[in-house]
Amino acid sequence: MKKNPIILILALLVVVIFVFNSVFIVKETEQVVITQFGRPVGDAILTPGLNFKTPFIQKTNFFDKRFLEWDGDANQIPTKDKKYIFVDSYARWQITDPLKFFIRLTNERGALSRIADILDGETRDYVANHNLEEVVRTSNRTPVSSGVIAEMISDSLINIEVGREKIQHMIRESANQEASDLGIAILDFKIKRINYVPEVREQVYNRMKSERMRIADEFRSEGQGDASVINGEKERDLQTIQSAAFKEAEEIMGKADAEAAAIYTAVYDRSSASRDLYAFMKAMETFEKTFDAETQIILSTKSELYRYLKDMN
What is the tens place of the pLDDT at every residue in 21-47? Predict the structure, then answer.
């Protein structure tokens, strides 16, 4: 009997669909859990390659082998010294037991929600048990000084005993203990950013301003003291210089007067004409030093000045 070609095509199509639904490929970056009516069947498939399943009954659930990312939301947490801060963190995790992971968490969305609960809780506990300096700083290294002001501020730094790195490590270890039955491992945990809440931030800025105003007042006070010393030394040096100059000027003037007197004396004794000239010159000097255009005087007729004025008329 001749076979109907339509039946052959349909039979071939059924075989192709059957094979297509039976075969699946696991990649290098994947791991698979097979379920039947929602329940896992056998062990998880961890190695890459070609695999088979019962078509239409069994279902393949693929999970990533690679390191996965968790990025948390910033949470407001009080530290041990009652300072409210926003802590923003992130982590890297991996599915280590896909069968257990499927049973407890189903998929990556459920895993991220559970990881957020674990890490947020552990972060809150450990931050609340340490002072702000422990959460911010990693070590007690000596800060590099960039000037006198930096040295004055660095003197007030508080030494830490734990530090940020150890707190992150403790959070990761504690989170892994809680996640031990979930089929996942927290590979790394880091605090990405720490910031004050707005109210505390304003207080911190005010305290920073006060600290720098205090330092500025110290510099200003030292400057005023140094200025007083410099001004005192300047006045002393000025008086010393003026005294020395005045003494030297008086000595020069004394010598000049002595020389002038000697010249006048030598000229005065030569003749009666020279004596008259000398008397006249002295009278003129007296006029110049004593009188001006508004001076009014009363002279005796026997005065030498009167005689010269009369002769001028």
Answer: 788 899 999 999 999 988 999 899 999
Task: Determine the Cα–Cα distance for residues 186 and 90; give it in Å rounded to an integer.
Answer: 11
Q: What is the rounded CA–CA span in Å between residue 189 and residue 87?
A: 13
Instruction: With H, G, I as helix, E, B as strand and everything else as coil, classify residue 63.
Output: strand
DSSP-assigned beta bridge partners for residue 85 = 77, 196
Amino acid of residue 294: E
Q: Which helix (H) or strand (E) holds 35?
A: strand 30-36
Output the pLDDT for position 158. Answer: 76
Which residues make Cβ contacts (< 8 Å) with residue 291, sequence separation at least 6?
A: 297
What does 160-210 look like in DSSP terms, one character per residue? -SS-HHHHHHHHHHHHHHHTTTTTEEEEEEEEEEEEE-HHHHHHHHHHHHH
Strand partners, 45: 32
Task: Tell me the C-alpha distance between 172 and 187, whole Å.
Answer: 8
What is the rounded CA–CA span in Å between residue 120 and residue 91?
A: 11
Mean pLDDT of 229-243: 90
Which residue type sits at 122?
E
The tens digit of pLDDT for each residue in 248-272 reads 898 898 898 888 777 777 766 666 7
The SS3 assignment for 294 reads: coil
How far apart (Å, rounded) are the C-alpha atoms in residues 229 and 236?
11
Residue 79, amino acid: T
Tokens representing residue 29 in the block: 């970056």
Question: Angle at CA 297, nearest 5°, toward 292 and 300?
Answer: 135
Three-state secondary structure readout of 65-132: CCCEEEECCCEEEECCCCCEEEEEEEEEEEECCHHHHHHHHCCHHHHHHHHHHHHHHHHHHHHHCCCH
Distances, alpha carbon 269 to alpha carbons 65, 262, 264, 274, 279, in Å: 132, 11, 9, 7, 12
